[in-house]
Amino acid sequence: MARAAGVSTATVSRAMNQPEIVSNELRTRIFAIVEHLGWVPDGAARALATRRSGAVGAVFPTLSHGDFARAATALQRELLIEDYILLLACSEYDPDQELRQVRKFLERGVDGIILVGDAHHPDLPILLKRQGIPSINTFVYDPTSPTSSIGPDNRKALFDLTDYLVGLGHTRFGVIAQSTENNDRVAARLAGIRDALGYHGLAVRPVHWGEGMKLSSVAEARSIFRRIMQASPRPTAVLCANAYLAIGAELEALAMKLDVPGDVSIVGYDDIEIMTEVPVPITTVRVPGDEIGRRVARSILSRIHGRMDDTVFECEAEIVIRASCGPPPDRLR
Amino acid sequence: MARAAGVSTATVSRAMNQPEIVSNELRTRIFAIVEHLGWVPDGAARALATRRSGAVGAVFPTLSHGDFARAATALQRELLIEDYILLLACSEYDPDQELRQVRKFLERGVDGIILVGDAHHPDLPILLKRQGIPSINTFVYDPTSPTSSIGPDNRKALFDLTDYLVGLGHTRFGVIAQSTENNDRVAARLAGIRDALGYHGLAVRPVHWGEGMKLSSVAEARSIFRRIMQASPRPTAVLCANAYLAIGAELEALAMKLDVPGDVSIVGYDDIEIMTEVPVPITTVRVPGDEIGRRVARSILSRIHGRMDDTVFECEAEIVIRASCGPPPDRLR
DNA sequence: TTGTACGCGTTATCAG
DNA sequence: CTGATAACGCGTACAA
Fold this sequence. Notes:
2 copies of one chain form a homodimer. Helix content of chain A is 44%, strand content 16%. Chain A has helices spanning 2-5, 10-17, 24-36, 43-50, 66-81, 95-107, 123-131, 154-168, 184-199, 218-230, 243-255, 274-277, 289-304; strands spanning 55-60, 85-90, 112-116, 135-138, 148-151, 173-178, 209-213, 237-240, 265-267, 284-286, 312-314, 318-320. The first copy, chain A, has a 6-stranded parallel β-sheet with strand order 2-1-3-4-5-11, with helices on both faces. Chains A and B meet through helix 4, helix 5, strand 2, helix 6 and helix 7 of A and helix 4, helix 5, strand 2, helix 6 and helix 7 of B. Chain B binds a DNA duplex through helix 2 and helix 4.
């Protein structure tokens, strides 16, 4: 207790929070003593008195995913500037677990909640509403949702990407995607593909459609790619719902002695370093994870501070054209 | 206030924490009311009264790294079982930032601290000692350190791996490593290489040594690999201090039309999925990130609960032999 | 400018 | 088994 050392009690509080309103002499003395016995204010007591914890909670489906990791890092860094701390948890793509984690966060008295995606456990919005805690859905963009969201428009991104491939002359498309169960982002991407093809009177044949994996795995992508390419006729372009699936598709294509993009064009989603380092750099959609993290931090903070910041921000999802795409082989025959 | 609703105050506390010691009637009534107005206990108040926050803090150098992400996930999951929560922060390989983050955690009243590595800011151990907070160094194994540590023996792992290559007949070695600045794990790996070679009267020539990058980047590894292989004579085996560096080395080797392992053997550290999916699967050291996370959780919890668990656990760092290694070409000439 | 005294929501300690 | 009541450590009007 720094109080015992000095000769005050509330003054210490003032010295720590508003040093300027304390006399020079006392301030220096207090600081000296604080330094001397390594005193740190008790956050719990402060939270109790202030009614604010200075923490925001984020529940991500996973951390083993470059974009989420980057977003978490940026988020944490940005929160730290305003002396807020990040509580991080993983739902492992399970809505029940997500709900439990959020509940834990609320017990911990977080001042705000960050979620990924638009689809949550039905009780979750109710819970948040009742507690009056601000929340933001990230990695999605949905102006129609009552919750504020910050992220790319997944549907539009793949709509545009698909449209680009159609423009190159492709008519037969393959799709490799992880399971859309509890993953509205991937579902939106697939919808984008369907919509873009439908617009041109095209559709993905069932035999060219590979879906159902829970996680994104290079190995699974390889086997699915191989299966899809055994169909006859085979697709001339394969759309992959994330980066590792695209890597797997290309590696398998090369192993099958197929030329990329001569025999088959390949595109992915998410821009991680290896996308440019594989033998044929892969066309993909770049999602600015850092930017999402930063914007989310600012938005949640301003809402915590009472400013009605109903941000629904659409992050640029830039299509990065690389060597893995070209006109279909049919055109050359 | 559930109190106003029912007719008690401390009984609510008991009903929540030890339901069995409360009469059936009251218990059900209390639960009903709690459910009805969606009441959640205030963590700050509880922490203040209990003198325990129910949180442990972890400061990792980065999250964009498979092993750390996995360890964090396992750690968090395991802590949750005992109703503890994980506070996660990134130091970005900066000791000052690490110290600041730890300080923040202590203000937040964490019950334990998890760090990565053995080398920290000089003030850090003092701070922890003074606060009497249990801490664990992870991803390292050092029985001589006063702090308990859980992880692989980085030095031994690369000693053994190097020894294996020597056993295959190699005598000229290349090394590709990120900067060892503030990264004692990598430093230990390099020491392992030096020691193993020295044991056989060998050493890495300066021109075969590529070091200095801050982060592990596939692209940088490629350029360093290319430079190293331009030396004459060139190495017949290249040791990479992490997975992405090894990936880069192999991709560049293949781009240079070198045969792996015919012309050059390549080994890495860390076993991520792509290590088996590149054209030539890469020999590496498998670090069980999940296991580290789990063990760390258990150890820190038992120390928080007062059990003197001075764990210094050495995790198995298994050498996974794959196709990227073989005898040196000299042997065949 | 500084000190006093109360409240924040729980848990722990005693009586009853 | 249950109800008062005193901490827990800090912020904060209010008084000095």
